[in-house]
Structures are given as structure tokens and as C-alpha cells.
Specification:
Two copies of one chain form a homodimer.
Chain A (H helix, E strand, L loop, with lengths): L9 H9 L14 E10 L3 H10 L6 E5 L10 E2 L20 E5 L2 E6 L10 E7 L2 H9 L5 H5 L5 E7 L10 E10 L3 H8 L11 E2 L1 H6 L20 E7 L3 H9 L6 E5 L5 E6 H8 L1
Antiparallel strand pairs in A: 1-6, 1-11, 1-12, 2-3, 2-6, 4-5, 4-11, 7-8, 8-10, 9-10
Chain lengths: 282, 282
């Protein structure tokens, strides 16, 4: 089920998820609020994953995590500015629309909660999401196409490698794509650049860059919906927070235990709004 | 002229440079002290360059800069922990062995000081250097080959693109290379990983990775000396702080004004030692 556009706060979105009433992508919900990608790992991999994010901040901007001093606690996110303390029922295992569950790099299930999969050894990481800057693009008259035609932003696996970190040696960038006219690219870059914790400005644009990224066919996104590209437009690519879960798939059975991620497009909506976030950065 | 191995502090190295008595690479000088790559830009590009570093922390780890509140002041580095206040004659224009001077992306001169090129509009940036971890490798019996056979570490331009930032859209990674036996790679990775502000662990290793990086011939480094690779060894590649000056060359006449960099291998030796640096990080 999809939420209506009157769902305007992070708490409202999370409560709908918690009750199993919202199972669809979260783009354009709770406008102005920061959304996050999710990766839940066995604690043995937590340190390497932090290093991976630090070495690849464009596709993997780390916003926060469950408390490392309370491994297995699904109710506490740090920094605590991300989820209001008044949300006493917050639970990372229920508060997203849908979850992907991996074992040995294989997707074994997609569920609306992961209460049975979460263990006392799990740590959850939140990664910035480009949905956070889509409102700013729309406000400037550069509305993302998937807001106009409906559906989910298209996402593509690329051949551009991540900087390795510890056990994570085999990942490549995943990118999201929004089509724009070439003459609008500099404005699109300018608008999205300040969103540093949410992938920032595009990493590439145009058909030559697309080929360099190893993307062959825009009509075959690995996640999300087939895009509508109009005459005179070129593809513009941003780092994407699906990168970590794609890395888990590529790592295969090197990663032991259950790994959980959001279903691409189905984010955790936070309580912090963009204005507060930038104030905090400054 | 080369300094002797008795040159053991950053200040001693800088004074020799300042007097024009040291004009050779700084690898293995002032052991345990952090060394830095240099890029000096017109102030108009300072903000974009900071973003470039933030988006590419592995090849471009930003350690510090001249004071942005005092543009054109060549005597003050921030954070002030990098250069001791007691070095009252510190001058970024004289304190490295040699400098490369660029105009419109072209190398127009190499000099032992840049007093005449520096203007009241220049800002200097310091980028971490992999020399900082070579002592740790040597201490573990994994001595870098160029310490053994003499000369400078080989450096290669690659085809791996930087994440663009503002005006800087055309850069690719430069890497340094040290040969190791394949069975030593995991230990080499483990030792260098903690040096996060100095490129950290390798980004790639082995001949397949080499081809993926677009490196065709190890005997033709773009900077530094031809390596000696022994039987059973593979090339191991780290991000390299020559990346920013190579980016300037690739940007061509898009960058206006005089740009200055260190001559590759000829670093600024800082007063902070590795132990203090890691204490500061923790």
C-alpha cells in the first residue's frame, strides 16, 4: 500500500510501516525530511564497513548506526538527532516499508519486518539517500521524472570499483539516474552539491560517461522502474545507497550470517529535516 | 643534493630546503614524521578543491591548508598542530625540496622555491602522503623496494575517475606502487589500513587490477623511478597525492592563473609524528 501525500512527518511514515500499512517506495513522502538506506550486518563486519564508508563517501555516506555499545539493540540510533526521543516505539526491524534478507550474498526473502531475522549480534547502518535532494530539484523547476510519471527512480550496477576496506574488496558503485537536458546539468549539479551526506552532486552525466560506467541499457535498471527519457535529455548519475547491499551480493559466501537491507526505494524516513541537517553541518 | 639519514626532524628537513640545500625526494627522511603533498591554487578554486578532497578521500586526503581567513599568507598552516609554532620562519614557498609550476595545465617550470610565483590570492593545500606508512612496513619486515634499491617510488596515472566536484570534473586517480609477494598482501593491507589520512590500505593489487586501472607498462611510471619487481611478486597500488596536480594538468586552460605543486616525491615534512596523529584521530 502507498501512503498519501498528506503523510508529512518521519514519525507518521514510520508508524505506517510499523503497522504494516505502508509497503511502497518512500520517494516524495515527508517532504524535506532526510531519508536513509539501511544495511544490517553481523557485528564482526562493523569496523570494516565503517572504513568502507569512510573510503567511499559518495556512494556510501554514513549517517548513523545503532549503538555500537549496545550491539543487538534495534531501538537506538546514533547520533540521536536522527530519530526523535519521543518515538519510544522506534524499531529498525519494523520501521521501513520492506526489507531484503541476504544469506551468502543471495537474496533469500523480502519481508515487511525482520523481527525474526535480527539477532543480538546485529548492527544497523544508515546511509544517506538522494531522495533528500529531490525536493530541492523540484522546487527549482527541475522535478525528477519519476515524481512526474510515478514509480521508483531507476538504479544501475556499474563497473566502477569501490575503494576496498578490510573484508570488503569486491564492490562497485550503484548509481541512481535522473534524465535532464544538457543545458540544465550545471544547475542540477549546483543544487545537489551541498547535500554532502546524501551523495552530493552527480558523479557522471551523458552517454559517454554511461558507457564508461559499464551501463549498457538504460531500459534495464537493476532496481527501480524503467525511466522515461525525453528528446534532448541525457542521463545524469548519482552515487546510490544501494551500493552496500549490492556489495554484499557480490561478496557471496565470504560474508557469514544473515545480512539485511532495505528494499531499494523503501527507505527509513528520519525526523531530521534538511534545514536542520545543514545547520548541523555548518 | 640529498639529505643524510641523520636528518631526523621535520624542522631539520625544512631548514635544509629553505636554504636550497635539499632538493631530492624526502622518502625515509625524518622517520615517523608525517609528510604531505602540496597543491597551491588561486583562491577562487579553494571551495571546489575542498569538496573534491571530501569526495575522494583515498587519493586526496586533506590534512590542512594555509589559513582561509588570511589568503595569501604563506607562513601559517591550519590545523596548527602540523607545523610547530617555534618554526617562526616557516614558509610554504621555500620549505619543500622542489616545486612544479603550472599554467593552463602545462608544467612551465620546476624550481626550488616559489617566492616569485606565489601571489596574495593563493591558498596552499596539504594532502596526506603514503611515505607516512613506509616506516611501519619496514618495521614489519616488508620494506618498500625503493628504500632498498634507492630512488623514488613509481607513480602511475590511471583511468579510474575521481568523483567530480564543481569545476574539477576531469581527474583520474594517480597511484603509487610497491611490489610484494601475493601471500604478504593481507599483512600489507592490515599495516597500512590505519593510515587513513595518508591513503590507507591499497586500492588494488595484482596484474588484473593493474589492467583495470589502465596501467599498461610498470616500467613506464609517469613519475618516480622504474621499479624492480622480483619473481613471484605482484604490484600493489595505493592512492597517491600526486592526483591533484595531475588533475590540474588534465583540466588544462579551464583553470586560470598559476598553480603550484610539489615535485612528486619531494614532500613537505611536518612536525607531527605518526603516534601523535593517531592519538589525535582517536
Amino acid at each position: 500500500m502507498a501512503a498519501s501525500s498528506s503523510t508529512s512527518t518521519g514519525l507518521e511514515v514510520r508508524i505506517l510501516c510499523r503497522r504494516g500499512l505502508l509497503t511502497s517506495p518512500t520517494a516524495s513522502l515527508a517532504p524535506g525530511h532526510i531519508q536513509a538506506n539501511l544495511l544490517i550486518l553481523p557485528s564482526a563486519y562493523a569496523s570494516d564497513f565503517r572504513s568502507l564508508c569512510a573510503r567511499n563517501p559518495v556512494p556510501c555516506p554514513l549517517l548513523g548506526s545503532t549503538a555500537l555499545s549496545k550491539i543487538g539493540d534495534a531501538s537506538c540510533i546514533q547520533p540521536d538527532s536522527l530519530i526523535n526521543a519521543s518515538d519510544v516505539d522506534f524499531d529498525i526491524r519494523t520501521d521501513l516499508p520492506q526489507y531484503n534478507i541476504y544469506e551468502s550474498g543471495k537474496l533469500i526473502a523480502t519481508k515487511i519486518d525482520v523481527k525474526h531475522e535480527w539477532t543480538s549480534d546485529h548492527v544497523a547502518f544508515l546511509i544517506g539517500c538522494s531522495y533528500s535532494f529531490e525536493g530541492a530539484l523540484a522546487a527549482a523547476g527541475l522535478t525528477p521524472r519519476h515524481w512526474v510519471v510515478g514509480g521508483n527512480v531507476p538504479m544501475y550496477r556499474t563497473t566502477r570499483r569501490l575503494n576496498p576496506a578490510g573484508i570488503f574488496t569486491s564492490g562497485t558503485y550503484v548509481v541512481s539516474m535522473r534524465p535532464y537536458r544538457e543545458e540544465d546539468v550545471s544547475e542540477v549539479r549546483r543544487i545537489t552539491a551541498p547535500y554532502k551526506g546524501m551523495h552530493g552532486e552527480p558523479i557522471a552525466w551523458g552517454y559517454q560517461d554511461m558507457r564508461e560506467l559499464g551501463i549498457v541499457d538504460l531500459d534495464k535498471p537493476h532496481w527501480g522502474d524503467v525511466p522515461e527519457i525525453r528528446e534532448g535529455e541525457i542521463p545524469v548519475f548519482w552515487g546510490c545507497g544501494v551500493t552496500p547491499q549490492d556489495m554484499i551480493m557480490q561478496a557471496g559466501d565470504k560474508i557469514k550470517g544473515i545480512v539485511i537491507a532495505h528494499k531499494p526505494g523503501c527507505m527509513l524516513v528520519l525526523d531530521v529535516n534538511e534545514a536542520d541537517y545543514f545547520k548541523g553541518e555548518g
